[in-house]
Amino acid sequence: MARLKKNAALRILEGVPGQSRVAPVVEKGEVPECPEWLTGIAREEWNRVAPALHAAGLLTGLDVSALEGYCACYGKWREAEQRLADEGLTILTPNGCVQAHPCQSISNQAQKLLLAWTKNFGLSPDSRGRMELPPAPPAMDEDSLFLKKLMDHTPGR
């Protein structure tokens, strides 16, 4: 698959190769709510994935439409696969010929789109390995809590 062209804004954000790059800071806010039009399996997938992506710093209000696309695509793929499991891989036409079930092409197309969406959100092991995730907040042990309290109560601060 060919690489997507980068727009000017993205090239500016990435900076010059070999020099330090500063990622844009986006306010996290709350976990975006599932849109009303997503139903069934697509809604279940939103409820499964959105909190995890938000906690990882990969989902903000700006990403809602992309996540909608992922969930809708996931719902189509699962529905097509369920019909294939229930009805079989082939159907009998009115002429008496055996042909591939139409859901097979729907499933194949949805899988291709789903793969692209999973890469965008880091939902596959390969794409997660290539992402630069925000650093985890430091753990507060007894020493660091003591240091924080000490710094907060230091005169002249």
Helical content band: 40-55%
Secondary structure category: mainly alpha
Order of helices and strands: HHHEEHHH
Cα shape: elongated
Enumerate the strands of the largest sheet in spatial order, edge to edge or round the barrel: 1-2
Radius of gyration: 23 Å
The proportion of strand residues reads under 5%
Q: Could you describe the largest sheet, including whether it forms a barrel?
A: 2 strands, antiparallel
Number of strands: 2
Distance from N terminus to C terminus (CA atoms, Å) equals 56 Å
SS summary, helix count: 6
**Low-pLDDT segments, ≥5 res:** none
Mean pLDDT equals 79
Short description:
By secondary structure, the chain is mainly alpha-helical.
Can you offer a commentary on this structure?
With about 160 residues, this protein is mostly helical. The protein has a domain at about 35-130. The chain is built from six helices and two strands. A two-stranded antiparallel sheet has the order 1-2.
List the helices and strands and how they pair.
Blueprint (H helix, E strand, L loop, with lengths): L7 H7 L25 H16 L8 H24 L2 E3 L5 E3 L1 H20 L3 H6 L11 H11 L5
Antiparallel strand pairs: 1-2
Helix pairs in contact: 2-3, 3-4
Question: What labels describe this entry?
Answer:
two-stranded antiparallel ribbon; 157 residues; elongated; 2 strands; mainly alpha
